[in-house]
Every structure is written in structure tokens, then in C-alpha cells.
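task queued by scheduler; priority normal; single chain, no ligands, no partner chains; default sampling; output format set to C-alpha cells
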Amino acid sequence: MKIKLLFSFILFSLFAKAQNVWTQKSNFGGTARNLAVGFSIGSKGYIGTGSDGSDKQDFWEWNQATDTWSQKATFSGAARTDAVGFSIGIKGYIGTGGAAFGGPYYNDLWEYNQGNNTWAQKANFGGTARFRATGFSIGTKGYIGTGYDGSFKKDFWEWDQVTDSWTQRASFGGAARWDAIGFSIGTKGYIGCGYASSIAVNDFWEWDQASNSWTSKANVGTNTLSAPAAFSFGGKGYVGTGAHDPGPTFFDAFWEYDPMTNVWTQRANFGGGPRSDAVGFSIGSRGYIGTGANSSGKFNDFWEYAAINDGIKEEEKIKIECNIFPNPFSEYILLEISSDVFLKDKQLKIFDLSGKEVRSAVFLQPQVIIERENLQSGVYFYEIISENKMIASGKLIAE
């Protein structure tokens, strides 16, 4: 018996009218706060922990299709701020962090199961207990590095989801620091900005998973930034907001990084105004920033960024419902789409983490079946194309 799982529900438009636009979404469901953590799983985004004046444990889910927040199972670790969050497949993770007002630092790691709304403790982080670290995921591996344990850190650690074990990797290429940003693009990870010893910095470094080596890249933007927000999608990285210490001076500038050219391009300023210690993550072809604080106080607003195809009225958007089952898959996947309009020349394309196209198929019916064949275990991405335009995208997991 096969169980049909709704994997993603994404709103797209085939008629691009504007680009590079911020759109305000429903306010975060919890209290206004900073120093929180976030990640995404499928078409859902998550924000939790942080400080609203006291350390928090609450955990909230945002539904991209309905633009609504719902409270989920309370984070099972101690209330904390400045933790690291990332997702691997259909699981989310929160680890490290500390108390905002001089309390202990943590080295625990917790796994969130979206399917049954539960938390499970995993192997403790391999480095020292710390807060203000950063991290990201590549394939079935999670990464945490930098931070502060009483001194600034530059060690870098890999967590294997399959074996639940930590392995130390090459230390971060820049100076030891806290409040850095981290994200991944394909098989490369990136860490930059933050507060190094006594100054804010904007250097930026690329980590190669295959060679376990760091390479210095172009500096981020024009300002040195501590505690900005970051995310990646569509083969590009994005960094915005943050503060310049000492001061502090808060920023709303927003920058796009192209790893192919090693160039940063300034994009539309973040819609919510200057701040630091906000949360950033991406879902499909959209990026999101919310919460944070500046000298005026803490925030609970939440904003969506689209590099293309935004500024379109909701009634002009085409609703694409995309069902994939099973996912994760072992032998085959069946992908089915429905839409409120007729879509021509539909194609499915599947890419590996390096961006190489590994499989394609044409929709002769509303659904298409892809056999596993020689696909290796790991994470893949799919795009659905209609009339040479991408109308949906998401993640696949081969067991």
C-alpha cells in the first residue's frame, strides 16, 4: 500500500512583471524577538528559540501556501539564543547556543521530525559548547563552525545524519569569530562576516566538501557586518541586514552572490528596515527574513524576497499543486501536478547537488513516473518546466 504525501505546494506565475522585490508576509506567530534560529523543510519554514527579553523554547511553522503560522512542539533542549539551525531532507536540526544573559553555553543537537511533530536528541556537537556559531547542510551532512565558548572559535565540524557522528574538518579559513553567516550552494559551503575579536568584518570564504579546503572569496558588500541574515536559492547566495560594531550601526542593505563569477551585486534593500540578529532561510525560489532587533526594539515581522517574478497580485498567480510519493524513494518516484490553468509542454528535470541534470521526462499526463535506475543515494532537486519557464521546484531524496 502506497501512502500519498503532499510534498510541496508552491505559488508561481508564468507572467513576470517585476523582479528584485520584498513582500511582507504574516507576522511571525511568536513574540517579537532576536537571536532566534530557523530553517526550512519542503514548503514549510520554521523559527524558534531566541530572546524576547527572556530565553525562549517555542517553535513555529510557517506554511508558504497559506501564509499562516502555527505553533509546533516546544523545542526539547533548554531555552536558548544564538543557536545554529539547518535541515537535511525531511528533518530539521537545532544545536549549540547559549543563554542571552551570561548563562551556560550548549553543545547538544536536536532533530525535529516534521512528520510526527517530535524532537529527538542526537550526538552532542563535536566541538566545545558555544553560542553565536554558524552552520549549513550539504547532502546528508550538517556543518557547524566558529562561535564563542569564552574565546572566539574557528574550528569546523561535520555531522553525518546516517551515523549520527561528528568529524572535525579543516578549520575555517578566516579569523576566529562569532555572529557569522553560513549557507551552501551545491557541494560548497560558505561562511563570512561576523565579529572577529574586536571588529565587525565582511570577508567571505568558500569550503569545498570534496577537498576539505577553504578559499577566500570576494568580500560581502561594502559594509562590515556582524549578525546579518543569509540564505541561498537558485545557485546564488544572499546576505542582508546586520550591524557594524562598535556602535552599533544597523543596516538594511541586501546583496546577491554569484559563485560562478565571484561577484556581489546589491539588490533591493530588505523591506523591514535596518536590524541585526534576524533569521533567514529559503523555500524553493524565494528567500525569507524575519524577527531581529535594532536600537528601537525587537521585531516579529516576516518578509519574502524574490529575485524574479514578484510584485504580482495574488489573483494573478497560478496555483501549482505538486504531489510526490514516495519521498524519500528507493525504487521510483511518481510526481503529479495540478493547476488552475492549462499548462503546455510540461517537463520534469532532476539535478544532483552539483547542478548537473541527471534525469528528465515529459508529462504526457498530469503525472510522470521516474525509475531509480542508477541514481546514487543522496539529495536531488527537481524543476518542472512549462513553455520554457520554471513553474515549480523542490527536493528529492534517494535512499
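post-processing summary
- Residues 233 and 277 are 21 Å apart (CA to CA).
- Residues 1-18, 309-317 have pLDDT under 50 and may be disordered.
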